[in-house]
Design brief:
single chain, 129 residues, alpha+beta, 5-stranded mixed β-sheet, 6 helices, 5 strands, 35% helix, globular
């Protein structure tokens, strides 16, 4: 039997939360991830880097990728949030949403198509974590 060539998929019910990032201090403004979990983040513009690694790690986040300067996404960061964490820590998720511009439901086909490259950055980072 041949090994599966299907691309890895996000955990069922995961969402990408797009949070406004005005400057390089964005990492310290993200709410600390509960359960000592680590979430992946993609950065929408290279000007939002570098960030203080201590702020990033203390908050429970890890950078999975950065948009290219010639094709920036915007002054934001996207956080991949699994369903279980959202359900167990509704207050934390509400705090994350307070700074959000959008929430992308990864179950939706159009979201999967438009954000495919970004989603793969998150999944690769999780696989190597």
């Amino acid at each position: 039997m041949l090994p599966s060539t299907a691309a890895p998929a996000p955990e069922e019910g995961s969402v990408l939360v797009r949070v406004t990032a005005r400057d390089r201090g964005w990492a310290r403004r993200l709410p600390t991830v509960p359960e000592a979990a680590e979430l992946t983040v993609t950065v929408g513009h290279p000007e939002l880097l570098p960030v203080d690694v201590d702020d990033l790690l203390a908050g429970g986040y890890r950078i999975a990728g950065v948009a290219a300067a010639h094709r920036p996404v915007g002054r934001n960061v996207d956080v991949l949030v699994p369903l279980g964490l959202r359900e167990r820590h509704e207050d934390w998720f509400r705090d994350l949403l307070a700074g959000a511009e959008r929430v992308f439901d990864l179950r939706l086909g159009p979201v999967q198509r438009v954000l495919a490259a970004e989603i793969q950055l998150h999944l690769r980072a999780l696989a190597t974590g």
